[in-house]
């Protein structure tokens, strides 16, 4: 958003570091009007060392933050905006992504294991097998979460078991664990020279090590995963000063930092402060959160119970029900990078709009299994309903529909848990710029979809929490002081019968994607996974071998 030179006297400004799965951004807001003044964005590279593995370079993540800050600073200077008016920086981040670093050298000991990563599938299966009744919800009464590859504890356990440098650092008391927020805050506040090792309640609640009732690390959970509590960061509220920023460039000295997990930040940015209010964020994944107030509500329909925010050291925690979808915007990246059917993300809308239908093609992008409401790690991606008429435009349309159908599934679960159906859906995130997607979403949900005119609600939420922190106090969160938000509404345009028909076909496709992979890979002795770890493929190959042996035997018994 452009800013004119007349904005020299803007009053207090608040910035946000938005470190997401696919990119990092730095944004600066006017604390009085919530106006976005300037920002800069840098894409983050992902690596896929093995099937199901997803990693990112901690150094690249940190460097991308510095680059975004410097470029945004340059843009503000060109606009004659005094950057000394920036009073605080809020950090918002991809949650669950797991890092371990050496507090003496300041170096990460392995790549960041991204929340989408599936390498811990066999660990999860072993943990579930040893629970009474093989119950994946065995820890839910404390954590609000099922035992899943999604959360940090199993990723940390894998690092301790499989990376020698991590194991040694733990034994010699040099290891520090954290999600991306902890890594950034530690580095930005001095690193090995006195950096602050902390996290907030929203990020801590995504680890499976945190008790959402006591709002602290739980000794029994840490013992369950055999993780020493000394490596964990100190848990703070989502709106307080954690420490002052240290940077070699003088202009960043002294700025205070705080953090809020990305989906919680979007809930704050959408101003969902009342019980029953909800938002859906369309990013790499898709995340629907509904404010449930001061008491945690346990889901009976496959949703997560999580800490929504705690806006001050002495303020009560607020909780939310969450529906988490692993693959939303990531399907666009897959179509671009893996299949090459589009060159840019914006092309997808044009391609899908050119046909206006999937022509019976359904795409279940279960690249990392299925998250809410199924929590089925053995599921894999599937495209079905193909005919000779199907082309890349139909596949593009089916990909957009997949995002909408997955949202419908978690919205249905949320309505069942709450007993009060949502009458409209507030949305945000990068994919909301796709107008076709927003219209499809309204059609498939059969309720209006409301998109704010300022889409950067995740960063806005982090800035709001930072600006409202005690000791900063330049941003008021009182309802009467919150800025009016302009928005665009997408109304359903198809009849409910058609919507239900398409949704029923989607559910049928989801069942086809289930139980595709075994959870215990079979090793060939060299650390490689055997082809027989896929049950359907294993049966096929085994059956083919038996048929060939049988045919050879019969041929030998019946000479011509």
Task: Describe this protein's structure.
The structure is a single chain. 34% of the residues lie in helices and 19% in strands. By secondary structure, it is an alpha+beta fold. The longest helix is centred in the C-terminal third of the chain and has 27 residues, at 392-418.
List the helices and strands and how they pair.
Blueprint: E1 13-19, E2 23-30, E3 36-43, E4 55-56, H1 58-78, E5 86-93, E6 98-102, E7 112-113, H2 121-129, H3 140-143, H4 152-162, H5 164-171, E8 175-179, H6 180-188, E9 198-200, H7 201-204, E10 210-211, E11 216-217, H8 219-225, E12 234-236, E13 243-244, E14 256-261, H9 262-269, E15 278-282, E16 286-293, E17 304-309, E18 318-325, H10 329-339, H11 345-353, E19 362-364, E20 382-384, H12 392-418, E21 425-428, H13 435-445, E22 449-452, H14 457-467, E23 487-490, H15 496-513, H16 535-557
Parallel strand pairs: 1-5, 5-14, 9-12, 15-21, 21-22
Antiparallel strand pairs: 1-2, 2-3, 4-7, 6-8, 10-11, 13-14, 15-16, 16-18, 17-18, 19-20, 22-23
